[in-house]
Write a structure and sequence with these properties.
Blueprint: H1 2-12, H2 30-68, H3 72-80, E1 115-119, E2 164-166, H4 186-196, H5 200-215, H6 233-246, E3 252-254, H7 263-276, H8 289-306, H9 309-325, H10 343-357, E4 363-365, H11 366-379, E5 380-381, E6 387-388, H12 399-410, H13 418-430, H14 441-454, H15 456-474, H16 494-512, H17 514-517
Antiparallel strand pairs: 1-3, 2-4, 5-6
């Protein structure tokens, strides 16, 4: 039974047939199948090679462009770099001029130099512990920041508006911040050199002299005289800083380093001076009022050029306060504070007070200036008070220019004043710039300023061409050893005898920088400089 049932079931199963599936395309050739198999790989490989070829082409073109372009940027970066203070020779000896300190004979229009809120730092703190009460040591303050936290450096003298004369300078964040020192900026220095009788050679002489002066700075930041006053480092340092300031060089970094190449030298020198200042405003190691006044001028001018209140306002005002308190009973200044002195010492104090007057944030006591005028009246000669003596009436060749410059600053004497004109005539007859006779840079320094402020044919046609060319001729040639190349030999006047080669060089530089160091007062306006239009 079981067998029959199985047989019956087997008979009912459907028949299964073999099926053959026919694949379309069986008609393709072997080559076509090969292409279809490898085509994706070829496409990828080909695209990759195209990309590589394009990259290679771009690299080749870039290399050709670089090869055709001179490496100007690399050279500029190397030359613009501010080096650490050292005695390195900063000149290009083969050219005889420091190429990074542009001369003032370029007539192309320059963009105004921009001052940034950054000061060159030194390894030691600025200011001595003794001077902490008068020197604020905080960081450089942003322009326009409030100043309530500053010590009132002028608190021991009358407040502004009560017998006081406030400086008439200005401040800002562009270029030299005080308009009264605007002539020292690169943008106006060129014009003033051309307008007042400087030339390419005089500016080359200035550049060479500054390079020599930079090499004389000591590691601590000070300079030293090589004359009989070799111990007076305060005067040597102050006097050495002045030619750098006159050329627009300050302690603050600028947007264009080439316009302030000696920033490290000035910063270190100012730092050294501040560390010598005592709480009363005087300086340690100063030989007396001569030395003090020169250092005070350096601080005031540097402050006036930068408006660096946090670093310089209080020290500068303190130095001025000391001068005012040190005036002698007769209105003069002696070698030591509060003693009567002479016209020569008065000249340096008046220059310091004038530098302070040019700064908006410094104050000068009008009574001090009035007493100084009374002293000058006492030593003046003639109805016009055109010539001056040492401590009594006279007609000293050397001291008359000193007193006339003081009159220009204090009394406002100038080209239209008959007494000033009489003084100019005396100077012209006393000694014109010449190789003959004693070469006295102390006399020439003052006389040149008096003639410069007077202008006219006496300046443009007579004094300036002789003075300028004589100083250029007397400068030690660049072919001399580095120890003297770019300097001036010791002269036979006060500056040479007491201050040596360093002093003679500083006074010569300041005399060659007269075109832009101080603009004639009658040429100034609220904006800084009037248009220099004149007939030669």
């Amino acid at each position: 039974m079981a067998i029959e049932e199985k047989a019956e079931k087997a008979e009912k199963k459907p028949d299964r047939k073999a099926v053959i599936n026919i694949v379309e395309g069986a008609g393709e050739t072997a080559n076509e199948r090969l292409v279809k198999k490898h085509l994706p790989a070829w496409v990828v490989s080909g695209g990759l090679h195209v990309v590589i070829a394009l990259i290679a082409l771009l690299i080749t073109q870039a290399m050709k462009t670089l090869a055709a372009t001179p490496p100007v940027d690399t050279v500029v970066q190397m030359e613009d770099k501010v080096e650490e203070p050292s005695n390195e020779d900063l000149t290009k000896e083969e050219e005889g001029i420091d190429s990074n300190l542009e001369t003032s004979i370029d007539t192309t229009t320059r963009e105004e130099n921009v001052t940034v809120d950054e000061v060159v730092t030194t390894t030691e703190p600025v200011g001595s512990p003794e001077a902490a009460s008068t020197t604020v040591q905080d960081a450089i303050r942003a322009q326009g920041a409030p100043t309530e936290n500053f010590t009132d450096a002028g608190s021991n003298i009358e407040a502004p508006g009560i017998g006081m004369q406030t400086g008439d300078g200005g401040q800002g964040g562009v270029g030299l911040s005080n308009t009264m020192f605007k002539g020292r900026s690169a943008s106006t220095r060129d014009k003033l050199v051309n307008a007042y009788g400087g030339n390419r050679d005089s500016e080359l002489a200035v550049a060479r002299g500054l390079a020599w002066l930079a090499r004389q700075q000591q590691a601590q930041g000070n300079w030293e005289f090589d004359g009989s006053s070799d111990k007076d480092k305060v005067a040597a340092t102050g006097l050495s800083i002045l030619p750098f300031l006159a050329a627009g060089q300050t302690h603050r970094k600028t947007a264009n380093p080439k316009d302030n190449k000696y920033v490290d030298k000035v910063a270190l020198g100012i730092s050294w001076l501040l560390k010598q200042q005592k709480p009363d405003g005087s300086f340690k190691g100063s030989s007396g009022m001569y030395s003090h006044a020169i250092a005070a001028i350096a601080l005031c001018e540097c402050f006036g050029m930068t408006s660096d209140k946090s670093l310089l306002r209080n020290p500068a005002q303190s130095a001025i306060n000391f001068i005012q308190q040190a005036q002698g009973p007769d209105g003069s200044w002696g070698y030591q504070a509060k003693s009567n002195g002479d016209t020569s010492i008065v000249g340096w104090q008046i220059q310091a007070l004038q530098s302070a007057k040019l700064c908006k944030d410094l104050t000068v006591d009008k009574n001090v200036l009035k007493k100084a005028m009374e002293f000058l009246d006492k030593v003046a000669s003639g109805s016009l008070k055109a010539t001056y003596g040492y401590t009594s009436p006279g007609a000293s060749k050397t001291l008359t220019p000193v007193a006339q410059l003081c009159r220009y600053y204090i009394d406002g004497w100038g080209p239209q004043n008959p007494s000033y004109q009489a003084g100019v005539e005396f100077i012209m007859k006393a000694q014109m710039p010449s190789e003959a006779g004693d070469f006295n840079m102390y006399y020439y320094y003052y006389a040149t300023q008096v003639l410069h402020f007077n202008e006219g044919d006496q300046w443009y046609k007579e004094w300036n061409p002789r003075m300028r060319d004589l100083l250029i001729k007397r400068q030690v040639a660049q072919t001399a050893p580095p120890a003297t190349a770019g300097s001036w030999d010791q002269d036979k006047g006060i500056s040479g005898t007491h201050w040596g080669r360093l002093g003679s060089t500083c006074m010569s530089l300041l005399t060659l920088e007269v075109y832009y160091r101080h603009t004639p007062l009658h040429r100034r306006d609220a904006g800084g400089l009037k248009e220099l239009e004149r007939g030669k």
